[in-house]
Amino acid sequence: MRFVRFYENASVSYGILEGDEVIQVEGSIYGDTRLTDRRYPLSAVKLLAPITPGKIVAIGLNYKKHAEEVNKPLPEEPMMFLVSPTAVIGPDEPILLVNPENRTEHEGELAIVIGKQATDVPVQDALKYVCGYTNCNDISDRLLQRKDGQFTRAKSFATYKPLGPAIVTDINPDDLAIRVRVNGEIRQDSHTSDMIFNTAELVSFVSKVMTLDPGDVIITGTPSGVSPLHDGDIVEVEIDGIGCLKNAVRNKIT
Ligand code: MG
Q1: CA distance 221 to 139
Q2: How far is the CA of 110 from the centre of ligand 1 (A)?
Q3: Distance between Cα 84 and ligand 1 center (Å)
Q4: How far is ligand 1, taken at its centre, from the CA of residue 34, in Å?
Q5: Which of 227, 230, 205 is nearest to 218 (CA)?
Q6: How large is the C-alpha radius of gyration of the chain?
Q7: Would you say 107 and 137 are in contact if contact means Cβ atoms under 8 Å apart?
Q8: Which of 20, 105, 114, 123 could form a disulfide with 226 if both were Cys (CB 3.0 to 4.6 A apart)?
Q9: What is the pLDDT of residue 72?
Q10: pLDDT (tens digit per residue) in 80-119
Q11: Is residue 76 over pLDDT 90?
Q12: Rounded CA gap, 199 and 220, in Å?
C-alpha cells in the first residue's frame, strides 16, 4: 500500500495511491483504514509530507563508505540524535538555505515511519512496529555541525527535512536501491543492504532508549556522495519501490 497525504478542496486527507489515482481514505493509516468513493487524479491534488512526525530520530554514520568520506571510524552502536519535526516539508516545496555561505549538503535517506507504540522491542519483533517507509533528504549545514559538535541546529532549520512522496508499507527496507540527483546528475548511488545497522536493529535500538509512538520517524543515515547545494538547484532522492522526492533549493530571503 502507498499512503499519501494530500490537499484538495481546502482540506487535508490521506489517500492510497494506485497508479495515477488517489483514493481518499478515512480512519487511521496505522490500522483501521477505510476506502471512500472519493477518487482524484494524482495531477489534481497537492501532495504534502506524508507524515507530520511527533519526533524525528536521526542515525548518523550508518553506511561504511559515508563514514570513510567524513573520516570517522565505524560506530560500534548506532549513533543517534534528535532533529526538530518543524523542519519537515513535502514534495515540491522549496528547501530554503538559511546560511548560503555555509556548506549545506543533501543526505538522501530511507525514513522509517512508526505505526505502533514501541518500547524496548527485540530486533526480531521490531518491524511489527513499523507502518511503512518513505524518503528523506536530511539537509545539513556542515559549518554549524562542526562548530556545535552536535547536530540539532545544523539539521533543524525549517525546510531542512523534506519527506515523501508516499509511505510504502509492503517493501523489504533492507533491499532497496537509493540514489540522489542534483540537477539530474547522480551524486549518491547506493543500496540499503550496505547499512551498518539494518532497519530492525535501528527500531529496536531506539526503542530501548525512548518510546516510539505512531507517526514518529527514524531516518536511517546516508550513503557516500554528499555534496553542497546552491540556490537554483533541484535535488531528488529516489528509493526503488517508494518513488522520487524532488525539491528546489533557494536562498532564504531574510
Ligand atoms: Mg543524515
Answers
A1: 12
A2: 10
A3: 13
A4: 35
A5: 205
A6: 17
A7: yes
A8: 105
A9: 85
A10: 999 999 999 999 999 999 999 999 999 999 999 999 999 9
A11: yes
A12: 8
**CA–centroid distance, residue 73 to ligand 1 (Å):** 16
Type of residue found at 93: E
> Which residues, in sequence order, are bridge partners of residue 251?
97
Give the separation between CA 82 and CA 211, rounded to whole angstroms: 13
Gap from CA of 246 to ligand 1 centroid (Å): 17
CATH fold, domain 56-251, is: Fumarylacetoacetate hydrolase; domain 2 (3.90.850)
What residue has cell string 552502536? 77
User: What is the spatial distance between Cα 209 and Cα 237, in angstroms, rounded to a whole number?
Assistant: 29
Cα(79) to ligand 1 centroid in Å equals 11
Whole-number Å distance, alpha carbon 222 to ligand 1 midpoint, is 5
How many angstroms does the Cα of residue 139 sit away from the middle of ligand 1?
Answer: 8
Categorize the per-residue pLDDT at 200 as very low, low, confident or very high, splitting at 50, 70 and 90: very high
Check residue 64 and give its pLDDT.
87
Residue spans of the domains in the chain: they are 2-47, 56-251
Residue 81 CA to ligand 1 center (angstroms) comes to: 10
Rounded CA-CA distance 211/195 in Å is: 23
Query: Which cell goes with 56?
Result: 524525528
Q: What class does CATH assign to 2-47? A: mainly beta
